[in-house]
Amino acid sequence: MAVFYAVMVEIDPKEEAAWAEWHTRQHIPAVLAEPGFVRATKYRLDTSNGDWHQYLTVYELTSREALDAYMHGEAVTRLRADHYNHFGHCTRLSRMILTPTAVISKPIG
Questions:
Q1: Which residues, in sequence order, are bridge partners of residue 60?
Q2: Mean pLDDT over all residues of the chain?
Q3: DSSP 8-state class, residue 47
């Protein structure tokens, strides 16, 4: 069953444009190149946390095992270091793992 790994980033508005470009064009594709990652959806939250803007990137993975392998591998260390080296001075991050417990669809008809 798919699992979702979500990363919330709060960004200083003065660095937002540079971060958004780098994050979309470099960071997300680098994460998606790792085994088990299927897709990523990046959202800008309409609510704010003070002056800083918030983004949520939700990565879909094939399984919890794929996420565990990523979280215990060298790639997570390398990719996090790359983010902190570029934008650690102007971002705050939090992470969460989302495991589906139920899927309810709207009835057809």
A1: 4, 39
A2: 95
A3: S
